[in-house]
Design goal:
The protein is mainly alpha-helical. The chain has a domain of about 110 residues: Transferase(Phosphotransferase) domain 1 (Transferase(Phosphotransferase), domain 1), CATH 1.10.510. It has six helices and four strands; from the N terminus they run E-E-E-E-H-H-H-H-H-H. The strands form two sheets. The protein has a two-stranded antiparallel sheet. The protein has a two-stranded antiparallel sheet with strand order 3-4. Strand 3 and strand 4 form a beta hairpin. The longest helix has 16 residues. The chain is globular, with a radius of gyration of 17 Å. The model has no long low-confidence stretch (mean pLDDT about 90).
Length: about 160
């Protein structure tokens, strides 16, 4: 993630690092679109702390996996992830599989639980409901009285 410094980009958060991405939706010669077939087995890629449970199971990545990572990053920035000090993949994967949303999002905005419930409902083909996610994040900002113009932590130093 990057944060814009000035102008219209100031305080905007940008998700970057598409080095591991691949085409997910293909446009066919006749103009129709299809979802790329799911690969049967893939290697673990990405940052262990933030990758989705699907990746630990060696399942092909999809749109939902980016949202899993985003949710884990938000929790990590807010309260810290319960597995942040675990360095081995299997124990991290076990934590992710067994932790309840109530425990994962303890002391986080309550709206994030609904986002995670939606993420958990997604499969390889399912298009995420980005409007639901956006609305829940907006609801959080309103409830907590956070403004886009509020200073970042480092602005206060």
């Amino acid at each position: 993630m990057l944060v814009g410094l000035s102008g219209k980009a100031a305080k905007m958060i940008f998700l970057v690092d598409f080095g591991m991405c691949r085409t997910y939706i293909r446009k066919n010669l006749n103009g129709s679109v299809t979802i790329r077939p799911q690969r049967q087995k893939v290697f673990v890629r990405g940052i262990l702390r933030y990758c989705s449970p699907r990746i630990h199971k060696r399942q092909d990545v999809c749109r939902a996996d980016d949202l899993w990572s985003l949710a884990y990053i938000l929790v990590d920035l807010t309260t810290g992830l319960p597995w942040r000090d675990i360095k081995l993949e299997k124990p991290v994967a076990k934590e992710k599989e067994t932790i309840s949303d109530a425990k994962l999002f303890k002391d986080c905005p309550e709206e994030w639980i609904e986002i995670m419930q939606h993420i958990r409902s997604l499969n390889y083909e399912t298009r995420p409901n980005y409007k639901l996610i956006y609305n829940q994040l907006q609801k959080t900002l309103i409830r907590l009285q956070v403004s886009y113009s509020d200073p970042w932590d480092w602005d206060l130093v």
